[in-house]
Design a protein that fits this description.
Blueprint (H helix, E strand, L loop, with lengths): L4 E2 L4 E2 L2 E2 L6 H27 L9 H36 L8 H37 L4 H31 L9
Antiparallel strand pairs: 1-2, 2-3
Helix pairs in contact: 1-2, 2-3, 3-4
């Protein structure tokens, strides 16, 4: 059943929206969206670098691509994720939402945690390994097959992160039937 939102009182089916009228909460929400833009923008950059001519089979282009991705990872992906986590936790605490009090938010937080774990445990280390292998290929000390195997792993877990990110966005925006509060 769709939820009725009263824009005058900022209530959803009679419940006060978390942070309504709180300027600090609104700033945190804006920063949360900035973190999301940084994170999603970096994903777009990671994907498009792969389309650079020679990025899959020419040593110099492979190294250039991996260097560009490493820069994007440490200037956009990681700070964007950090901003998402910090502002998300802040809004949860400031809005007195807690963990498990709103099912949609719990799903959003769990999926967000999976994104963070996937990035920290798998994607960032694999990205570093790819840069190292690309450097070794440039020196003639590694094979393109090693690079291709790592890229396959990065592509699989990167696609999983993109899918998880889309799920968190849809859950946060639509607040599907999970929106009922737990007591």
């Amino acid at each position: 059943m769709p939820q009725a939102i009263d824009p005058a009182t900022k209530t959803i089916d009679g419940q006060q929206e978390a942070g309504a009228g709180d300027p600090v909460y609104k700033i945190a929400k804006a920063l949360h969206f900035l973190g999301l833009a940084m994170f999603l923008g970096s994903i777009l950059g990671h994907i498009t670098i792969g389309f650079v001519p020679g990025a899959k089979d020419q040593a110099q282009a492979m190294l250039f691509g991996r260097q560009a991705i490493e820069i994007a990872t440490w200037s956009l992906t990681v700070p964007g994720l950090a901003l998402l986590v910090v502002t998300g936790l802040f809004m949860t605490l400031r809005g007195r939402l807690g963990f498990g009090r709103r099912r949609w938010l719990t799903v959003h937080q769990i999926v967000g945690t999976l994104i963070l774990l996937n990035a920290a445990v798998i994607l960032v280390p694999v990205g570093g390994d790819l840069l190292e292998v690309a450097s070794k290929i440039m020196q003639g000390n590694a094979s393109v097959d090693d690079f291709t195997a790592l890229r396959g792993r990065e592509s699989m877990f990167g696609a999983a992160n993109l899918l998880l990110a889309l799920i968190t966005i849809f859950v946060a925006v639509l607040k599907p039937a999970l929106a009922q509060s737990r007591t």
